[in-house]
Design a protein that fits this description.
The complex is a heterodimer. In chain A, 36% of the residues lie in helices and 13% in strands. Chain A is built from 15 helices and eleven strands. Chain A is α/β, with parallel strands linked by helices. In chain B, helix 1 packs across helix 2. In chain B, strand 1 and strand 2 form a beta hairpin. Helices cover 36% and strands 4% of the residues of chain B. Chain B has a two-stranded antiparallel ribbon with strand order 1-2. Classes of the chains: A alpha/beta, B mainly alpha. At the A-B interface, helix 9, helix 10, helix 11, helix 12 and helix 13 of A face helix 1 and helix 2 of B.
Chain lengths: 479, 92
């Protein structure tokens, strides 16, 4: 077997009897064994999953994948890369885990991440950072660091991450992968550990658009056990992947992509080439001004921290997870458990969240952020009356060097400029590869659409991918 | 001008059930001040429009049905348990 096969190629190989399910399982088992110690992408490898073939038939039969460590797998540790949940065994399966297994998928581990998905580089994991297979001195992006690193290195052909501000799309962009942030409510979140409930969504990470659309199709559909799940049946997002853009497609270019000084030159060049490519493929493009986009980061700061403070108040050592040793009373149990269990970034966010919600500050911060969020949503609604899709670089920067980004948190947060607006407004966006830097680091751009436009987004992304074929390039040291 | 002081930090730490080491206080106050100060940019936005502030979802209802669930596996996650109960330090 060759390394870096896509899901589609593995399925074709099964059909043509080029290899058996047993071959595939032992192939990936060996690759993980060989490379994970370099990458720290898996927090745990489920060795037992490689021992037997899938008992279910379906679209992912005997195809191994990885879930981020904040998605519950019954009976397995699910720690959100935090010490406070280091001994927590999930008591039920996340709905998406079940849907994937019902299609025969082999879920072979849990992926590294920033603690509670709070971070952009994976370095806030309590278990050490995952590294970028394209260059081990660099971050694979966060917070879905492990799921991205594992797919990029060919340790699994697909993974599921989660995103609240950038956490699937930025890792996709930093690792030459495809990553989707779906419409709010498109995929069930039951069993995904909450961080910012009004933004959090799970999303697939894959090498190709087809594979991504296939995973998205499997995990779509209504879940009565998730009150935010939309009441729509499962969809097949692979059926419109024609290789062509729809006729008369109008694409808006988010103005800051070309005009902001924050976009580094190499990203700008790759993005300009992307625009030319899309024009050659028949798209009409125009620069658009997204009113209030410059407030996206501030809105995200306030809302995400407020909701994090509230969501993480449940970790107090009483019902599950770690508890401090021999607390003298209840209050000491709460305080010491949290002090010992949470890392600094999580503490910072809880502190800020409770501040912006507290009496005297709520109007200036939280209420204002909710208002500006709604204004931004209106900006998107207005723009989508004029264009079908929007594009921008996924990240204004190249991948971060390990150690550099976390030394200046505000700067790292600013790198979410282009991804945060979709999360706070609940609209879908996909990051796909669009080039490399001179030093060989991947660059991605994003295609954004109105709510529930995943079909159109996938169609456009697939057409671009088929013309450019960056997915054929793989990190050299992992052949 | 906006400032987030050490006193603000200590007050909010208490609200958050978090205790900070002396060595952390200076650093946290500085970092949080930076992010909060940046966020005051929101006060520049003045909207005269009527804006709908509710999220995109309507309320979702379902039947309140009992499902079988093995309570033992939940208790297995308890830091301290006794028979079928969770044990916490004495409250009164």
């Amino acid at each position: 077997m060759k390394a870096f096969l896509t899901i589609k190629e593995i399925k074709d190989g099964f059909k043509k009897r080029q290899f058996s399910p047993k071959d595939v399982l032992s192939f990936y088992k060996n690759r993980i064994k060989k490379y994970n110690s370099k990458l720290n992408a898996f927090l745990e490898v489920f060795e037992d999953e490689f021992e037997q073939e899938s008992t279910k038939k379906g679209l992912l039969e005997n195809i191994p994948g990885l879930l981020k460590d904040n998605i519950c797998q019954k009976g397995r540790i699910t720690s959100a890369a935090s010490k406070i949940l280091s001994n927590y065994r999930a008591t039920y399966d996340a709905t998406i885990a079940k849907k994937l297994r019902d299609e025969g998928a082999k879920i072979v581990g849990r992926g590294n991440m920033d603690e509670f998905a709070m971070g952009s580089s994976g370095e806030y994991s309590a278990y050490g950072p995952a590294l970028n297979p394209w260059n081990l001195e660099y971050s694979p992006g966060g917070s879905s660091s492990g799921p991205a690193s594992a797919v990029a290195a060919g340790l699994v052909p697909w993974s599921i991450g989660s995103e609240t501000g950038n956490s699937v799309r930025v890792p996709a962009s930093f690792c030459n992968l495809v990553g989707l942030y779906p419409s709010y409510g498109r995929f069930s979140r039951r069993g995904a550990i909450a961080f910012t409930s009004s933004n959090d969504q799970v999303g697939p990470l894959t090498k190709t658009v087809y594979d991504n659309a296939l995973i998205a199709s499997i995990i779509s559909g209504h879940d009565p056990k998730d009150g935010t799940s939309i009441n729509q049946p499962r969809q097949d997002f692979t059926k419109n992947l024609t290789g062509n853009l729809p006729k008369n497609l109008k694409i808006g270019i988010i103005k800051d992509s070309l005009e902001s000084e924050g976009v580094v030159p190499e990203v700008k060049i790759a993005f300009e080439n992307t625009i030319k490519q899309l024009q050659q493929m028949g798209a009409q493009t125009k620069l658009v001004n997204l009113t209030n986009i410059e407030y996206g980061i501030a809105v995200y700061f306030v809302i995400s921290r407020a909701e994090a403070a509230s969501n993480l108040s449940r970790y107090d050592g009483s019902l599950y997870g770690k508890r401090t040793q021999n607390p003298k009373d209840l209050e000491e149990m709460y305080i010491k458990t949290r002090e010992e269990g949470f890392g600094n970034e999580v503490k910072r966010r809880i502190l800020m969240g409770n501040y912006v919600l507290s009496a005297g500050h709520k109007d200036a911060f939280y209420n204002k952020a909710v208002l500006v969020r709604s204004l931004l949503r209106k900006s998107f609604d207005d723009i989508f009356k004029d264009v079908d899709l929007l594009i921008s670089p996924t990240s204004p920067t190249l991948p971060f060097k390990i150690g550099e980004a976390i030394s200046n948190p505000l700067e790292m947060y600013m790198a979410d400029y282009f991804t945060v607006p979709m999360c706070i407004t609940g609209i879908p966006a996909i990051s796909i590869p669009c080039g490399f830097s001179k030093t060989g680091l991947p660059i991605g751009f994003q295609i954004v659409g109105p709510r529930f436009s995943e079909d159109l987004i996938y169609q456009a992304a697939y057409a671009f991918e088929q013309k450019t074929q960056y997915y054929l390039q793989n990190p050299k040291d992992f052949e | 001008m906006f400032t987030f002081s050490k006193e603000d930090l200590l007050k909010v730490a208490k609200l958050s059930a978090l205790k900070l080491e002396d060595s952390e206080i200076e650093q946290f106050a500085k970092e949080l001040n930076q992010v909060l100060e940046y966020s005051t940019v929101l006060n520049k936005v003045i909207s005269t429009e009527e804006i709908k502030l509710i999220p995109f979802k309507n309320n979702t209802m379902r039947e309140d049905q009992i499902e079988e669930f093995d309570s033992q596996i939940i208790l297995d996650d308890a830091p301290v348990k006794k028979e079928t109960s969770f044990v916490v330090p004495k409250i009164l």
